[in-house]
Amino acid sequence: MRVEFDRDTCVGMYQCVAEWDAFEKDLNDGKADLRGSEEEGEDLFVVEVPDGEELDAKFAARSCPVDAIEVYDDDGEQVV
Ligand code: SF4
Fold first, then answer.
1. Does residue 80 fall inside a structural domain?
2. Which PANTHER family match (predicted)?
3. Residue 62 maps to which CATH number?
4. Buried (b) or exposed (e) across 20-31, using 16+ Cβ within 10 A?
């Protein structure tokens, strides 16, 4: 499972931080940071979800009010 985080869209509401500890507050930028991610495009950060954290990742994506977080399964299908 993989998560794509559009940091440009993020408005720093931090609901995701409460759902999954891979998301951390960056109060200087007013954005979230996605721990362990790699930047694969301009402000697009991608990470493989560790085993056991899939549910948290999905909850984080659902909690985001501006849909800055997308979740894909191993077949590349978007699940959130
Ligand atoms: S919930 Fe969405 S807008 Fe809020 S910090 Fe997380 S990614 Fe950014």
1. no
2. FERREDOXIN
3. 3.30.70.20
4. bebbeeeeeeeb
Judge whether 38 and 2 are in contact, CB under 8 Å: no
**Number of domains present in the structure of the chain:** 1
Give residue 10's pLDDT: 98
For ligand 1, mutation pick of 3, 14, 46 (most atoms within 8 Å of CB): 14
- The protein residue whose alpha carbon is closest to atom 7 in ligand 1 is 10
Ligand 1: atom nearest CA of 63 is 1
Q: Is 78 part of a structural domain of the chain?
A: no
Using CA positions, which residue lies closest to atom 1 of ligand 1? Answer: 64
Q: What is the pTM of this model?
A: 0.97
Residue 79 within any structural domain of the chain: no
